[in-house]
Amino acid sequence: MPGNVFNGLNHVNFVKNDNLDSLQLNQIGKLMNSITLKKIIQYSRGEKKADLLLKNGQVVNVFTGEVVRADVAVARGLIIGVGQGYSAIETIDLAGRFICPGFIDGHLHIESTMLTPYQFARAVLPHGTTTVICDPHEIANVLGISGIHYMLEASEGLPVTICFMAPSCVPATHLETAGASISADDIATLLTRPRVLGLAEMMNFPGVLLQIPEVLAKLEVTRKRGMPVDGHAPSLSGRDLQAYIAAGITSDHECTRPEEALEKLRAGMYLMIRQGSAEHNLEDLLPVVTAENSRRCILVSDDRHPDDLMDRGHMDYSIRLAVRKGLNPVTAIQMVTLNPAERFRLWDRGAIAPGYRADMVILNNLEDMQVEKVFVWGQLVAEQGNVLSFSRPEVKSRTSSINIKNSKLNFAIPARTGRIRVIGVIKDQIVTEMLEVEAKIAKAKEKMAVSDIERDILKLAVIERHKDTGNVGLGFVRGIGLRRGAIASTVAHDSHNLIIVGTNDFDMKFAANCVAEMGGGLVAVDNGQVKASLPLPVAGLMSDEPLENVRKKMDRLLSVTKELGSPLANPFMTLSFLALPVIPALKLTDRGLVDVNKFEFVDLFV
């Protein structure tokens, strides 16, 4: 085995060095994989001293579903023994604490945290997350393949292993202008990259059922490589569900009802039970989980916003919540360790057992599940909620994602008739209503339809920001509640164009200019003044600042929106879904109003 990495390294420091560089950690990981079978056997038989011994712990055995008192010995980053009689250069007495495999999030969008991969790793590591499988769908819709390459590069060598699924739906629909498109050929190339594990959520289930050639081609290139395909098929049932699964799609995270979840489990799907910031499905779906089917169930986050990460945690929060709702603690731990590891064929992790990576989490108990220590490759990387420093420089994004000419911005809506179609916000939902109301007409030289603050009917604009097409979709929304000013954001699923809602055209245009100057992000303005902002310079989706800074700026934004009159807990989250033309009933894209139920454009005026 190569010895240069370890030359001059004291073995105690090898375990406890607070200044371990993450690139060095990654290199150590690669060397661990090169250890000879002969040496592994020698360590496992006790012929050689281990590097680290976790003594007097209680091992959560995810294979048998039991808790066993045992010591855990680690050498060269691998677990080489679970039992008694081992000796090591460094010993940590756990005094009865619980030893679990590192937690795995089987489906999430890192972009939803508004953090870069580097900052995301720093945020989730103290919560026991050591591996994530993410879908870079959001950045791919902005920057295409180059965005995915950025995510791969930015996540290389971090203590948290960040794996990827190749995005299947870029662009998401033909009803909006995305920043890029990804073809079946692109996906075939992506699937050859290290840490790309398969095809991400196939949202276009109608395209699968209608046998659209390009959709089937993406499934086919993945099938030929024998790699998993994740699903996204809310409420799909019967023969349509059977056909969807027969096409090779073997998981779903969109279930909201127990009967839907059970049907998908019975048809052979992995059930991903989502507990995110926007979608809370765990409590409703947990009754479906039994001793017989639990090994086909996985807890996932899908999205986790900055305040949730700080206040609740990551996968540790999902485990705690599941246990509080009555799930067996060991079963809950299986659902964030062995189950996702096997689903995504990560055979080297997911259990505390000989030959597995020494990615380990130390819990105080199996009731409140507080994470006390986190090990990656046998290295202590987090303790008592604090990340032990890793000094790898952060990879910066070098691509501009805002291409808007301010001279083209015009929010005026000439009036034609008295009634207009209005998007009706439904509290705590991403679905909307399609309303028809009388327009407020400004009495000027030319009659214009304008915001009506008293009836909470505010002007809404979606500006194409990728290709400088000059597209501006205009409409109205009820339910945001602003009494003054405007708010704007480049986080607007799925194409992430610039979306603005305001009480007047002047503040709306000012907000657009502010976001463009920031290089993307969120802003709240009033009377031509910026009241709060959160720059998101990485694709208009992510900040390169630490979680604490992002949270502070986000809290300030939400405080200002309340001052401007909005009763919503997070109007920016509501705003981000108003341009999503796959969620009923009425949405607005840069190309116009969309009747989602008919999947076609409709006129603003009735």
Strand composition percent = 25-35%
Unreliable segments (pLDDT under 50, ≥5 consecutive)? 1-24
Taken from the alpha-carbon principal axes, the silhouette is: elongated
Mean pLDDT: 92
Structural class: alpha/beta
Q: Would you count the extended β strands for me? A: 30
Residues in helices, as a percent range: 25-40%
Total number of helical segments?
19
Fill in the keyword field for this structure.
606 residues; elongated; 30 strands; 8-stranded mixed sheet; alpha/beta
Tell me what the structure shows.
This protein has 19 helices and 30 strands. Strands 1, 2, 3, 4, 5, 14, 15, 16 and 17 form a nine-stranded mixed β-sheet that branches. An eight-stranded mixed β-sheet has the order 19-18-23-22-25-24-26-27. The radius of gyration is 25 Å and the shape is elongated.
Entry summary:
With 606 residues, the chain is α/β, with parallel strands linked by helices. Helices cover 27% and strands 27% of the residues. Helix 5 packs across helix 6 (145-154) and helix 7 packs parallel to helix 9.
Would you spell out the secondary-structure blueprint of this structure?
Blueprint: H1 11-16, H2 22-33, H3 37-44, E1 50-61, E2 66-75, E3 78-83, E4 88-93, E5 98-101, E6 103-108, H4 117-124, E7 129-134, H5 137-143, H6 145-154, E8 161-166, H7 184-190, E9 196-202, H8 205-209, H9 213-224, E10 229-231, H10 238-246, E11 251-252, H11 258-266, E12 270-274, H12 282-285, E13 297-300, H13 306-311, H14 315-324, H15 329-334, H16 338-343, E14 360-363, E15 371-376, E16 379-383, E17 386-387, E18 419-425, E19 432-438, E20 440-442, E21 448-450, E22 457-463, E23 472-478, E24 486-489, E25 498-502, H17 505-518, E26 521-526, E27 529-535, H18 547-563, H19 571-576, E28 586-589, E29 592-595, E30 600-602
Parallel strand pairs: 1-4, 1-5, 6-7, 7-8, 8-9, 9-10, 11-12, 12-13, 18-23
Antiparallel strand pairs: 1-2, 2-3, 5-14, 14-15, 15-16, 16-17, 18-19, 20-21, 22-23, 22-25, 24-25, 24-26, 26-27, 28-29, 29-30
Helix pairs in contact: 5-6, 7-9
